[in-house]
Amino acid sequence: MTNPTNPTPPSRIRVGSAPDSWGVWFPDDPRQVPWQRFLDEVAGAGYRWIELGPYGYLPTDPAVLAEETAHRGLRVSAATVFTGLHHGPDVWDRTWVHVAENAALAQAMGAEHLVVIPSFWRDDKTGAVLEDRTLTAAQWRQLTGLTERLGREVRERYGLRIVVHPHADTHLDSEENVTRFLDATDSRDVSLCLDTGHYAYCGGDSVKLIETYGERIGYLHLKQVDPEVLAEVVADEVPFGPAVARGVMCEPPAGVPALEPVLAAARALDVDLFAIVEQDMYPCEPDRPYPIAERTRRFLRSCGV
């Protein structure tokens, strides 16, 4: 009698997608698909988890949004906010207004996370320089200290965990800056949303980061960059928005980083993680996202998630 084969343990990675993958960057924009179409198509493509996207794009009445998501078999993993906490206490009150409306909706929808993106040092459309791209020591202290405060208050008031998202054209971008931020913040208050595309855009190695700071990885955004387009936009100092319009973010598995080793490293952590597909495509033709979303979901299944 032979021993039965041990079944493969189920993945602890929950895959979803976001309005960003449908070209949605703003609460209201004529070049974006209507929210009903996004919900229909993200469910049709095989995803069961979504992010809320820019506040006001999806219905902000929890009862309406709960009905619209439930009958499509969708659940919410996170909301997203932009912050400029390196500017210090003077920005706290207006930052909290933005945070609170997003966190309240996420909480009402049963989400677990709030994705926090630092503000841009240059305008993401015009390229106009808004401030120095390098933080002073004092600004680093403001950024880390106020981010820890944000983590505590969001957890205490809304039961959500903040996950800070390194992003191109922000002060939290390269391996040097990301590791400096992690080393200076308390793991009890601050986790990381590792966006594989943005980290590659800024020269980072996602697998190395997961292997080195695994206990700080609280959330994933799955994204790839086209290395040829990336080389052009870096050489030309193109801001992030026009770089996206050039196609710097591409459909997997055509770009970098390879997602198979990233997902393997994430699975090795043996923790529950969301892995949300985010292929920046603003602006894009309305019929373009759905076939990409279907192909991407099939690809991720082939990676074991």
Outline the fold blueprint.
Layout: E1 13-17, H1 35-44, E2 49-51, H2 62-70, E3 75-83, H3 92-108, E4 113-118, H4 137-158, E5 161-164, H5 175-183, E6 191-195, H6 196-201, H7 206-212, E7 217-222, E8 224-225, H8 227-235, H9 240-245, E9 249-250, H10 259-268, E10 273-277, H11 289-302
Parallel strand pairs: 1-10, 2-3, 3-4, 4-5, 5-6, 6-7, 7-10
Antiparallel strand pairs: 8-9
InterPro entries: IolE/XylAMocC-like (IPR050312), Xyl_isomerase-like_sf (IPR036237), Xyl_isomerase-like_TIM-brl (IPR013022)
Protein name: IolE protein
Pfam families: AP_endonuc_2
Descriptive notes:
This protein has a single domain, classed as Divalent-metal-dependent TIM barrel enzymes (TIM Barrel, Alpha-Beta Barrel), CATH 3.20.20. It contains eleven helices and ten strands. The longest helix is centred in the middle third of the chain and has 22 residues, at 137-158. The strands form two sheets. The chain has an eight-stranded parallel sheet. Strands 8-9 form a two-stranded antiparallel sheet. It is an alpha/beta fold and 305 residues long. The protein starts with 12 loop residues before the first strand and ends with a helix. Helices cover 39% and strands 15% of the residues.
Keywords:
single chain; 305 residues; alpha/beta; TIM Barrel; 8-stranded parallel β-sheet; 10 strands; 39% helix; 15% strand; Xyl_isomerase-like_sf; IolE protein; IolE/XylAMocC-like; Xyl_isomerase-like_TIM-brl
Count of helix runs: 11
How are helices and strands ordered from N to C?
Answer: EHEHEHEHEHEHHEEHHEHEH
Rounded radius of gyration (Å): 19 Å
Number of strands: 10
Number of spatially distinct domains: 1
The helix content is 25-40%
